[in-house]
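Sample entry (620 residues):
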Amino acid sequence: MSKLTIKSGKAELKLRKSTTLVGLKTEGEATEQPFVEAELHKNLGGFAIVTLRTEGESIDQKLDEVRQTDAVEVGTHVYFAEGSNRPLIPTGDIFITFQSGVSQAEQQIVLEEFALQLLERRAPDRVVARVTPESLNPLKVAAAMQRISLVKLAEPDLDTVLDEYAFTPPADNLLAQQWHLQNTGSLPDTNYALRRGADAKVIDAWRRLDGMGSSQITIAIIDNGFDLTHPDLRDKVFKPFDIWNQSTQLLQGDPRYSHGTPCAAIALAAANGQGIVGVAPNARFMPVSGTSYAVRATEQMFEYCMKNGADIISCSWGATDAAFALGPDKESAITRAARQGRNGKGCIILFAVGNDDLDYVSFYAAHPDVIAVAASTSRDEHARYSNRGRQVSVCAPSNGDWPIISARAWWDPGVEGEVGNYKYWRDGISRGQYYKHFGGTSAATPLVAGVCALILSANPDLTAREVKDILQSTADKIGSPSEYINGHSVKYGYGRVNADRAVAEAIRRRDAAKAPTVTPPATISGGKGLFRFDVRRQPAEGWGVQIGVFYDYANVLIQTERMRAQFGQPAIVNISEVQGKTAYRVLIGVFSTANEARALQQRMNAAGVSGFARSLQDMA
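Predicted structure, serialized as tokens:
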């Protein structure tokens, strides 16, 4: 039972079994057991959530094995809901509502049929039961009971990690090695020195969004060699198409073509508790297979993406040979998608600048309606192979010193001439058969495509031109300042993409569009510039409405400006330290009573602004 649909609360949950996590009730600490590799959660539904030392066995085999040991009282599988990275575990209790008129004797027959123990009767038709050693898995029991005519609802009790109003990164085991998402300056399994902070600030963007993006955003990857069986891609495929065979059945298994698999994974690999995570792991994956220079094929690929709901189109290919410059028909095909897609807002189209170490970019990347992506390194330096030119929009982390980990197609032959793990891994150390080291502007481009998906998750009303402007205006200037003329560098474009600042700007524009028409004397954009402050110490008395906690001071400027203009109340900033980082709590209004603060809270909620009344004394 790798997949199952159950009723939970007011919704249906589509569950998939974790291939790495299990829940154990043990005598003593779970971490003391020799078969436990690591503990992720100490107590979820009474179970410790752990990874096991599988030693080549499947998770099913290993769990069956440890269940037989004296140290394990109960062992169970862990599940993930579709589109979520939160582990779910059945506690063993099942909440059952019988149909009206079913007698208690008939109810008892149902419980005995499934070997359930009656724990509690809450109403004539409602009981709480618990599985016994003779029962099936509680999820299987609940699903089976739901099909019985006597049962109106059978809901298994599930436990998961609740929000503490702070984002929890995904549990995928290679996340710590994905330095392009968050660069700490080192990697778990190598002594190679990276530059701390030389990354795309993706995990910071997830925290700002309080999630990993919308499942309603579709990223089309136009390329060759998509492994649609890959565990990070197979459950995400949406409206695939093969240009070469004019079919929804994509070419797979040809060793000459495997490039599309790692490109797609960098943008949108699922947060499924294993392997890597894409920049926008909740986004839908539209694989369009079959690159071509032909006019008709070019027209078809962009027309297909546009007409089938692609929001973003990522292309890690192109041409720098002067003989293959774009003609007017190809340029028009790209222009149509960039301006007419997304119901007139325009598809966001990205092209790699190329890996030829040239002083001009690929002819496709030079198109004025696309985002031309160059490559930077894990040390925030220009990747020497990355083409340069005035059309470069932004750069993004890729190889050049240390490569990026991405997905590997099952038929990928690896690097020609290399043997063993070196075919796939620069240092010869394998991180699993589904993955490999990858790089080039081919990697940088889908990374930025994923950032665009996060931007649209924050503000889906943005046009393609606005998304490009946000990327460029929020990018971090890396390299020497002397390389930038009017804010632009032929190597880096407008800088290395910063997903967190880009998402913040998308949110600012969204909120500004919703706010009443109020024109302040000056508009804060990105938190940069010269501002006049009236700074006075606020006595720790009274009440206000807290709207959030921010690590980015630029966001404090943006939010306080917007709130003061929209609600006509003073903004109070409480400065403290959270987990070793300076944090800014922003409150709006100062009132003598909690009821006055709650009245403002209701006004803010009606305007789409979340907040809660808080005593200023609590923040002293």
